[in-house]
Recover the amino acids of this structure.
């Protein structure tokens, strides 16, 4: 399509509007599908939880772990880490300024560069901040490495689950401990950002390079820490599931394409339910279920949940 106009606004609108329309038309069906799948899952899980105590116990154990260690402890330890980050940066800045003031002759620099003492001092402090920021990041990486080795040495990366399927206290603080380090890195970056907003230096090139390098290392470290926490939480939930799954009910699911049956294995996934039959895993989307029949492996009787009755 050829655009014939001399008005930049019209040109922009003709380019941007179709772009956003494509994005919106692609996102809306995806959002609707995710919503419907989550809705179907929640409805079926409520019925299974109400009629099968073992499902209720499993969901209770998972819910307790998510609410207390994952959300509550991680939330507060993250903010505690931010405060620690502030303190670390202040300590390193003061230490570097002290060293800087004792090993560098400010009056000599004033004469060589023909600058006032205030300008030299300002640039010197800026140099100290940029150096302290990067050194602080390296210090946090070192402490995290030591903490990681400690967790590995004590085998704390292996989730501890008691016979009742509850997570033991020794495993409560593993995931939140990663959020302490995430908070520390955030704190270091926040205090540097606040300082940088009120500082004008004559030679910003070195500071910019150091800051950008520090931000890059910070980003990589935060991503790694997040996935460490996520993978451990996934391991905990799988460990809880292993305690309960052999007592889960047998399920027969009817969909448009046929029937699927087996013992329930996983109901945590947001979009899929997993069954097991003769060492074969069978996976069905929640929103494709038309009828679900559930029976307790230790009792007679069968319950039938259909897609019409749960709406």
């Amino acid at each position: 399509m050829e655009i014939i106009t001399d008005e930049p606004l019209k040109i922009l609108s003709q380019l941007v509007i179709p772009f956003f329309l494509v994005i919106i038309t692609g996102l809306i069906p995806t959002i609707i599908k995710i919503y419907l799948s989550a809705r179907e899952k929640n409805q079926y899980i409520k019925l299974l939880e109400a009629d099968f105590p073992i499902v209720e116990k499993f969901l209770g154990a998972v819910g307790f772990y998510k609410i207390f260690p994952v959300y509550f402890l991680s939330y507060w330890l993250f903010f505690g880490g931010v405060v620690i980050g502030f303190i670390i940066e202040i300590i390193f800045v003061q230490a570097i300024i002290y060293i800087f003031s004792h090993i560098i002759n400010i009056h000599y620099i004033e004469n060589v560069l023909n600058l006032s003492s205030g300008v030299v001092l300002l640039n010197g402090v800026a140099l100290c901040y940029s150096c302290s920021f990067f050194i602080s990041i390296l210090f946090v990486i070192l402490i995290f490495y030591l903490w990681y080795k400690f967790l590995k040495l004590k085998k704390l990366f292996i989730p501890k689950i008691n016979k009742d399927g509850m997570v033991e206290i020794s495993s409560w603080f593993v995931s939140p401990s990663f959020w302490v380090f995430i908070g520390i890195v955030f704190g270091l970056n926040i205090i540097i950002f606040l300082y940088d907003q009120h500082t004008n230096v004559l030679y910003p090139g070195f500071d910019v390079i150091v800051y950008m390098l520090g931000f890059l290392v910070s980003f990589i470290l935060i991503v790694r820490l997040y996935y460490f926490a996520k993978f451990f939480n996934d391991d905990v939930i799988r460990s809880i599931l292993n305690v309960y799954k052999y007592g889960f009910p047998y399920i027969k699911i009817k969909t448009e394409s046929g029937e699927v049956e087996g013992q329930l294995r996983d109901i945590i996934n947001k979009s899929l339910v997993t069954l097991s039959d003769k060492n074969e895993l069978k996976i069905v989307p929640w929103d494709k279920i038309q009828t679900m029949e559930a029976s307790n492996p230790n009792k007679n009787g069968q319950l039938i949940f259909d897609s019409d009755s749960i709406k």
